[in-house]
Amino acid sequence: MWILIVMAVAVITSCGQEILDSGSDITETAPIVFNLTANHPDATKAVKTGWEAGDVIFVFFSGAAAPKHLKMHYDGSAWSSAEYNGSRQTEGALGLANGNVGTMRAVFLPFGSDATVSASGTDFVFSKTYYAYYLTATLDYTVSNGKVSGAFQMEIPDDYVQFFVEDADAQDEAYQLGCDAVIPTGVASISANGTITETSDKTAADDMLGYAYGSGDNKGYLFSGKLTTWKYGSNYYFAKTKTADGSRADYFVTGKTLSSHSAVKLPAASDVYALNGDTPNKGKWVPVGSGITVKLGKFSGEGGWEHFSDFGTWYTCNYGATAPEQYGTKSTFGYATSNATLPTKSQFETFINRCSIVPITVHGVYGKVFNAPSGFVFLPSYSQEQLSLIYWTSTIYENDNSDAYYLSITHGGSISFIITSSTAWACIRALVNQLY
User: Fold this and answer.
1) How much of the chain exceeds pLDDT 70, in percent?
2) Are 226 and 160 within 8 A, CB to CB?
3) Per mean pLDDT, which range of 167-171, 274-278, 334-338, 424-428 is the poorest?
4) Helix %, strand %, coil % of the chain (to 5)
5) Which residues contact 399 (CB under 8 A, 6 or more apart)?
6) 3-state secondary structure (DSSP) of residue 196
7) pLDDT tens digits for 89-112?
């Protein structure tokens, strides 16, 4: 009996040893090594001129379903890579193996290094929509000897433009910038085959968010978007708004054509036109707000100042307006004179004769900029169907005191003073003029 028991134990022990021994021959699959780098686009086509420590490139593989992706991290001298499954870093998340082939889509968000990726059906989406320029590249890959290698040639999408405003105190999204030539645009999603779908919820003149960029004396706000499909000519009007309190300053550019990949440096946030007329405003922001006037004139080489006129620019459309593009009030002469101090006919004539008149659109409203050597005023058209400027003057018609003059400038640029009854209810609005 004891002999049988000992033999049974020996057999069981032997079988156990065979199972353990056979298991010792199993080896785990080695993780894939990624030898990936990226080349920054031509520095002349961007405000940001190269890679910086902390930059992250998101890489999406045609052979890996959303939200599995790779993140390339730049430490200031070299790139390293890590696999992710959504927001979790997971070694081997991509599930790649030797012999796998496909395409990689690389996306760089300058201010989205902390973004996470999730799945929307089969698409990849970022945790936040960044309305800022981005870089992208596509590269074929083959997993060979446990490695994926390649260098991405990053590019800015066509028609992207960038604007930089110096500000030593810049903080993300503290300012917004609107321009009718530019549509704020970001990445909406990346499909399984790498196709990028851009956002479509913004239109021309919508405010671009300002992202803090740079350091020291070179710190400021970076704004970006895509040019409208019909482009825009060579005259541009910018409206910069402070997010915290809504305060605004405008800037007008003539004779500069924006093109794909333009990178434009606008005046520093602190470089604002002195309203007392002691410095030129060219290259400066003009403050906007209820009650603010703009002095039109020019400076002589000896530091002298030739004054044209003062205009309460931001009352131009109707009494109480707070922004130059607001329009719509239709007023009688009596209403206009009781609620505003109107310019005289001769003041308007000086205004017209000394300024260049430039058709422009501000926040979707068509009108004209009257541009002096120093100072500018935007007047919106009273009707966007009838692209004409019509504004009351305070001058009574000399032959009939029941009539008054108003200024009329047609879409084609014809300028005239028209006489009409001061009791008429017409599409005519007041222009406040602050006099000395």
Assistant:
1) 82
2) yes
3) 274-278
4) 10, 40, 50
5) none
6) strand
7) 999 999 999 999 999 999 999 999
Cα of first residue to Cα of last residue in the chain, in angstroms, is 126
Q: What percent of the chain has pLDDT over 90?
A: 52
Tokens of 291: 């009650």
Cα separation, 40 vs 222, whole angstroms = 18
Encode pLDDT of 286-331 as tens digits. 888 767 777 788 887 676 778 887 776 544 445 556 778 876 566 7
Which structure tokens are listed for 141? 């890959």
Are 186 and 192 contacting, i.e. CB atoms less than 8 angstroms apart?
no
CA distance linking residue 59 with residue 81, whole number of Å = 10
- Tally: H helices and E strands in the chain: 3, 30
**pLDDT, position 283:** 77
List the domain boundaries for the chain: 33-266, 286-421
Vertex 419 angle, CA 416 and 424, to 5°: 125
How far apart, in Å, are the Cα atoms of 2 and each of 9, 10, 114? 11, 12, 70
Of 224, 217, 245, 90, nearest to 157 by C-alpha is 224
Q: Which token pair is 337?
A: 């004179």
The number of residues making up the chain comes to 436
